[in-house]
Amino acid sequence: MAQEIYNLLISGNEEAWEEDTVIFDLSRCIREYTESDLVEKYVKFGTDEIDQLKKYPCIFAYEDYCEKNASVGCITDILVRQGKVKIVFRKVKEIPSEYLRKRQFELDIHEWELNRTHWALKKVNLFKELQALDIVLNPLTSTKPIDITKHIFDISFTFAGESRDVVKQIVEELGQLIDESRIFYDNNYISQLARPSLDTLLQDIYRNRSKLIVVFLCEKYQDKKWCGLEFRAIRELIMEKEEEKIMYIRLDDGHVDGVFNTDGYIDGNKFSSRQLANFIYERLGLLA
Fold first, then answer.
1. pLDDT, tens digit, for every residue of 119-149?
2. Residue 3 above 60 pLDDT?
3. pLDDT tens per residue, range 240-265
4. Which of 207, 226, 212, 198 lies closest to 279 in space, CA to CA?
C-alpha cells in the first residue's frame, strides 16, 4: 500500500539536497499540487501522519533553473516548529532531471510544478515508474525489526485462519492510519513466531502488551486450539474488568465459549474493510 504514494520535494536552493536535512515553510508542505484527500489526511503532521509519510519513497528534485539532477530516497524524520518543517532524509540513487520532465504525466507532476519550491504527495507507484529508467529499488526505509518479546502493541488481532483474508484487508487499511509496528498481526512476524513455548509468548502479548485486542468471532474460532489459547488471555482481561481493551467483530453466528448474547459486536459483513479499520482506529483513540 505504501508504495502507491510518493513524496515529491522540490527546492530552488541549489544546495538543498547536498546534506541530509532541509527546512521548508509549513505553508508549502502538502498543500500544493496534492489531491485534496491527501491534503486533509496529512497536513496536520501529527505523530501518525509523520509515521506514515516516512514510509513513502521520495524524489528530491531541484527547480528547473538549477539544472541539477534529482535523487530518489526516503524521509527518516520530520520536525514541525515555528511555521517551519525540518525534513531529515536519505538519498539512495541519483536520477537525471530529464527523466522528471519526460515522465511528468506518469509521475503526476503538473505543468510549472518543477519551478516551485514545495512538498507534494502523489498517488503514483514510484518503484514501478523507476523501472522504466532501469532503476530497480527495494523498499527504501530500513528500520530495526520489532522484538515481539518486548514490544507493546496498540492493536492485536486474534482470528481463525479461515478469516485471514478479511483480517489482512483490515490490517492494510489500518496501515494507512497508524504505523504497522503498532499492530500485532501474525504474518508480519513469521520469523519471530517460529520458537518453542509460543503459547506463553502469545498470551503475554494479548494479556499484558496490547492496548486493544480485536477478536474476529466465527464458528471456526471455537474449533481452533490456538484461538482458544489466545482467548484465555482475553477471558482474564474480562475477569479483571478490563473490557475496554476488547473489541468483537462477528463474521458469522458461530458460538464461542465465553461470548454471550449480551455482548456487543460489530457485524463484519455489513461494513467494508476501510470502515472496519476506521471503527478500530476510533476505538483505539478512546484508550489514549
1. 999 999 888 887 766 665 555 544 567 899 9
2. no
3. 999 999 999 999 999 999 999 999 99
4. 212
Which amino acid is it at 198?
L
**What is residue 100's DSSP assignment?**
H
Residue 29 DSSP symbol: B
Task: Give 172-207 pLDDT, tens digit per residue.
Answer: 888 878 878 899 999 999 999 999 999 999 999 999
| Predicted TM-score (pTM) of this structure | 0.58
**The three grid cell numbers given for residue 169, joined into one nine-digit string:** 484487508
* 259-275: burial string, b at 16+ Cβ within 10 Å, e else: beeeeeebebeeeebee
DSSP 8-state code for residue 144: P
Q: Is 152 helix (H, G, I), strand (E, B) or coil?
A: coil
Q: What is the pLDDT of residue 122?
A: 96
Question: Who's near 282: CB < 8 A, 6+ residues apart?
Answer: none
Q: Supply the pLDDT for residue 128.
A: 82
Burial 233-248 (b: 16+ CB within 10 A, else e): bbeebeeeeeeebbbb
User: Could you tell me the three cell numbers for 227?
Assistant: 484461538
CA neighbours closer than 13 Å in the CB half-sphere of residue 165: 2
- What is the residue type of 46? G
Where do we find the cell 511528468? 104
Handedness of CA 200, 202, 203, 209 (dihedral sign): positive
- Strand 6-11 vs strand 118-122: parallel, antiparallel, or unpaired? antiparallel
| Orientation of helix 164-174 relative to helix 273-287, angle to 10° | 60
| DSSP assignment string, 206-272 | HHHSEEEEEEEE-HHHHH-HHHHHHHHHHHHHHHTT-GGGEEEEESSS---TT--TTS--EETTSS-
